[in-house]
Amino acid sequence: MDTDPGILCFQHCSAQVFCFELPELCPVCNSHLATAHFRLMPFRVPYPFVRAVQHPCSIVIKPTTGDFLHDYLNSMDLHIGVTNSLGDVVEFDKGGLQQHRAGLWGQCLVVDKASGPWREHWDTILKSVSDQDCWSSQRYNEETFNCYTFVLTFLCNLRYEKLSKAATNRTMFCETFIVPRTTAAGKYISLYRKLNDTGCYIQRHPSPLPKR
User: At what angle do helices 147-158 and 119-130 cross, to 10 degrees?
Assistant: First the structure.
């Protein structure tokens, strides 16, 4: 299921306008847009979230409860998992280690992914780490032995460039890979919620536009 709400951006006169549907009149100057000359033609703002099943051999994150658009706050915990070459998600939580099609991962962020030549090695190491006896529901601890423990253990064994190097330290990994993704996504989330409240958002001092 496509969860992209389809946020549009355009600029007719002095400000950028964000909306879900192009209005008849410019909300800044009330000119008819059907015959207007746009300073910035309407385009769809890039949607940062993906379906995990479409991103094999990736590290993916999502809120532990709810989804990003409607529920996520900066103070909330994130859940992290690994997709194999088929797009199945392997994750470790209070139920132990689980592998399944990514039904609950329809709105997530990709932290990083492996290139094509690495896919066979990725699957081999993922299976090797998954086969370890320690990933049981009895061993799970929310603070000390959790989903991050599993993913970082996998990455350290994978030996995949900067991703594996950062995985040797949880703080380093979060600062290098998690925070930049959630910060960028947070801007989209904030914009989406403003539009849900007002239907239109006017940005009078434009910042650099998202790349199309």
Answer: 130
pLDDT digits (tens, 9 = 90+) for 168-186: 999 999 999 999 999 999 9
Coil, helix or strand for 197?
helix
In sequence order, the β-bridge partners of residue 99 are: 90
What pTM did the predictor assign? 0.88
- DSSP 8-class letter at 12: S
- The residues that bridge with 10 in the sheet, in sequence order, are 17
SS3 state at 195: helix
SS3 assignment, position 29: coil
Output b/e per residue, 71-101; b: 16+ Cβ within 10 A: ebeeeeebbbbbbbeebbbbbbbeeebebee
Intra-chain end-to-end CA distance of the chain, in Å: 22
| Nearest partner of 81 among 49, 105, 117, judged by Cα | 105
E strands within 45-170?
A: 58-63, 78-83, 89-93, 96-100, 109-113
pLDDT at 158: 95
Phi, psi of 184 (to 5 degrees): -65, -45
Return d(Cα 3, Cα 172) in angstroms, integer: 31
186 alpha-carbon distance from chain centroid: 10
The C-alpha atoms of residue 85 and residue 98 are separated, in whole angstroms, by 16
The backbone torsions φ and ψ at residue 8, rounded to the nearest 5 degrees and listed phi first, read: -105, 150
1: burial class by Cβ within 10 Å (0-12, 13-18, 19+)? exposed
Residue with tokens 């090695």, as numbered in its chain: 121
